[in-house]
Design goal:
heterodimer, A: 308 residues, alpha/beta, TIM Barrel, 8-stranded parallel β-barrel, 9 helices, 20% strand, B: 267 residues, Elongation Factor Tu (Ef-tu), domain 3, 7-stranded antiparallel β-sheet, 5 helices
């Protein structure tokens, strides 16, 4: 059986040996998994959101399991850009990981500060940036940008002028029309779009009438959101010319291939990593097997073959 | 920091110890070699009706190449786990957690305190402490006698309590620990505890009051178990700007020194 071509070029220097990335927030800075998997074999490791300064994160409890999914309200706890550049990136480089840095800020200047650092020689080894304008768990920044087209457009334009690195913009599902935000991001210079971030939700303790999360609301992820994600990825892919990276409830190779069929060029695997940190590699392998069995020569041949 | 491993480990035994308590034994030489008392592992619950996330469990004991987990059936995940039989495999990841029990060297006596399933990590700790030839005493409390099936595994003075009075003293184990410390036996002791959060806070309060050093093993909901998701964070005090600081139970913990936690109301 001939092996299909699994490599994907998302443009502007972001080339993946296979289409499965580890999604931001579910794979730490990669190094947490150094003992457990071969980081260099993963399509790309999208590291946890990086802000200019360390962030403490939200009040616990921060996670709760729900039907076929989970809610989280981490609140972007992270050690800040300086720590990332000095303590995490050198090791990731040594290990040969393809790194996409997820960038978060509360203001334009915050985003630009992080982007500048990552785009300087200190950021060597970072193959792409994922702009987080869709985190539902923070009061400022995040989703505020992801729901207001003018703010998003202005931010993406500024980032575009600041960096030559690949810029992926991560879209929120918590909006009426995802295609409007998709178009704005692309017109402002995004090289690719990733869709979707988590869906806002609540979990309650009925007896006490209190929220199960310290932050009251959280972001829903896991298999429960896959149909929603597939729909929004499909709409996004039809709305723009740039590559779309599908995210949302992908648990196995078949799930991932459905996202390819609706028009995604690559995927990100998130919550499945919690069940098995080897998920990105296992899923890539399952995709390859599926294609080989059907004698599909190139993953790209499957892109957009959803017959709706 | 221990090296972590993940593998499908042969399940050698699933022993039912009381109505709700089980002890499982897996063969996992790498994990057995690397594990330290206080660390935990995570298991993937098998089968089509399994919950989404892995389940974290204290490492109960290491015997040669084998690792044991003591667990109580409390929900769907542990119910499915209890139905597993030897001959199958379980996906096991570990050892996890950099925060292990650190027995003090100057201490003459270790006071082990457990509430219910909080007994799980203490046997592994005792195996380690025994080599130091120090005195030990166990304070072990539960709701009912069903919570104390492993009480005879501890070759040391054991003080028991149950809330229903079915075994040992009627009441909370912290009351018995309080009485013990009140009697002036606290000097040159160290408390090592695991149990529900209210119990651990009460234990810590006694330690603060009597000037006894203490370490507690915390339990929280977890997603990743390896420090990547920051979902299991607990408050550990404030930074210089007065902002709350959080650490990960799965990474900086699960065992914390009581002086590292913001539990002392007099400070």
């Amino acid at each position: 059986m001939k092996r299909p071509n699994m490599s994907v070029d998302l443009g502007r220097g972001l080339r993946l040996t296979n289409p499965v990335m580890a999604a931001s927030g579910t794979y730490g800075y990669g190094l947490e998994y150094e003992d457990l998997t071969d980081l260099s074999a993963i399509g790309a490791v999208v590291v946890k959101g990086i802000s200019p300064l360390p962030r403490a994160g939200n009040k616990p409890p921060r996670i709760v399991e729900t039907a076929a999914g989970m809610l989280n309200s981490i609140g972007l706890q992270n050690p800040g850009i300086e720590n990332f550049l000095t303590q995490k990136l050198p090791r990731l480089r040594d290990l040969g990981a393809t790194v996409v840095a997820n960038v978060y800020g509360e203001s334009d200047d915050d985003y630009l500060l992080v982007v500048e650092q990552l785009s300087s020689p200190r950021g060597d080894g970072v193959s792409g940036l994922e702009i987080n304008v869709s985190c539902p768990n923070v009061k400022a920044g995040g989703l505020v940008y992801g729901t207001q087209p003018d703010m998003l457009g202005a931010l993406v334009e500024k980032i575009r002028r600041t960096t030559d690195k690949h810029m992926m913009v991560k879209l929120s599902p918590n909006i009426t029309d995802i295609t409007a935000m998709a178009r704005v991001a692309v017109e402002a210079g995004a090289d690719s779009l990733s869709a979707i971030n988590t869906l806002l939700g609540i979990a309650m303790d009925l007896e006490t009438g209190t929220p199960k999360l310290g932050n009251v609301t959280g972001g829903l992820s896991g298999p429960a959101i896959k149909p929603v994600a597939l729909h929004l990825a499909w709409r996004t892919a039809r709305a723009v010319e740039v590559p779309v990276v599908g995210i949302g409830g992908i648990d196995n190779g078949r799930d991932a291939l459905e996202f390819i069929r609706v028009g995604c060029r690559a995927v990100q695997v998130g919550t499945a990593n919690f069940r098995d940190p080897r998920a990105p590699l296992l899923i890539a392998h399952e995709m390859e097997e599926w294609l080989a069995k059907r004698e599909v020569a190139d993953l790209a041949d499957l892109v957009g073959t959803f017959r709706a | 920091m221990s090296r972590k491993f993940i593998a499908d480990a042969p399940l050698l035994a699933m022993d039912r110890l009381s109505e709700f308590y089980y002890r499982l034994t897996v063969e996992f030489p790498d994990l057995a070699r690397e594990a330290r008392p206080g660390q935990f592992l995570s298991l993937e619950i098998p089968g089509p009706n399994a919950p989404l996330l892995r389940r974290p469990f204290s490492i109960h004991r290491v015997v040669d190449d084998k690792v044991q987990v003591l667990f109580k059936v409390v929900g769907e995940g542990t119910k499915i786990l209890a139905q597993q039989r030897s001959g199958t495999t379980l996906n096991v990841m570990g050892p996890l957690g950099d925060g292990v029990f650190v027995p003090a060297t100057q201490v003459e006596k270790f006071l082990l305190v457990a509430g219910g399933i909080g007994i799980a990590p203490l046997l592994f700790l005792v195996d380690d402490l025994q080599q130091r030839k120090k005195k030990m005493q166990l304070f072990f409390g539960g709701r009912t006698a069903d919570d104390l099936p492993t009480k005879d595994d501890f070759a040391m003075p054991v003080t028991l309590s149950t809330e229903d009075g079915s075994t040992g003293e009627k009441g909370l184990i912290t009351a018995l620990l309080a009485a013990y410390l009140q009697n002036g036996d606290a000097a040159k002791s160290q408390v090592l505890a695991c149990g529900p959060m209210p119990m651990l806070k009460a234990v810590a309060a006694l330690c603060y009051r009597h000037g006894v050093p203490g370490q507690v093993s915390l339990e929280t909901m977890m997603a990743c178990g390896v420090g990547s998701c920051y979902g299991c964070a607990v408050e550990v005090g404030r930074d210089v700007h007065g902002k709350v600081r959080y650490e990960r139970v799965c990474h900086e913990g699960p065992v914390f020194d009581i002086n590292h936690l913001p539990w002392d109301e007099n400070r």
